[in-house]
Amino acid sequence: MSGPVTGAPRRGVLSRLTARLGSGAVSVLLALVALFWLVPVFGLFVASLRDERANAASGWWTVFTAPTSLTLSNYADLLGEGTVLRSLLNTVWISVPATALVVVIAAAAAYGLAWIEFPGRDVLTTVVVGLLVMPIQVALIPVAKLFGFLGLFGTITGVVAFHVAFGLPFAIFLLRNFFTGIPRDLVEAARMDGATEWVVFRRVVLPVAKPAIASLTVFQFLWVWNDLLVALVFADQDSAPITVALRAQLRQFGTNIDVLSTGAFLSMVVPLVVFLAFQRYFVQGVLAGSTK
Known about the structure:
By secondary structure, this protein is mainly α. It has two domains: 13-71, no CATH class; 79-287, MetI-like (MetI-like fold), CATH 1.10.3720.10. The protein has helices at 13-48, 52-57, 73-80, 82-115, 121-131, 136-150, 156-179, 184-192, 197-208, 210-225, 229-234, 242-253, 257-277, 279-287. α12 runs antiparallel to α13. The model has no long low-confidence stretch (mean pLDDT 80).
């Protein structure tokens, strides 16, 4: 029989290759990949700054030889149009409440499923996990009939309610898994000191769960902000978000790249700002559990 294995574990091929290339070369490679990934975004931004004739005559990359073709008139015209500006505001009124309600309700429900003993807790957890596999398309017609009966069809409230209902299963599942990883001694110590469940949840669990909550906030906000299917079904002309407005522009004017690129870039700015605001916590939430 062979003796016990000693020494450092054998590294893989990629690890040895990375060590030989050095951290500087790897950083340069990652920077090049990031720049390549940003090329379409930069092209969209440049196209939004060119008029209709310039976009029809040549590609956006020709701007380097003719920078004088750039103009802000597309943004002025688009924001001056009431339909697009209203759709942007509708997107905010839909995305912010749908995100806030999902985060608040899911955090409270996940804490109950993770740290409070009550009859049927395991069954309820199984039901939540089972709801993850339900496709949205299955519920569109039944929920549309229900909203029509309740008077919510074609309203922002109805769109928000649908996003909240279908965003909660994943949110509860994500936060519950994170809450169960919190050391039990930390929660029990707070209970022994006389803290109520609300105090434990607010002062012990929530501060520790900031990375997971930030990750959920980013995911939910991006899903709702970029949604088209739910908005097409449940929103009318007055409550339609920016995705529906851009689709209507494409149907009406065909290849009006100046309008579409400007609207698409405007709709991309807000999610980008949200991601950058939660970036630090988002990275922590994605890496949570990798060292356990």
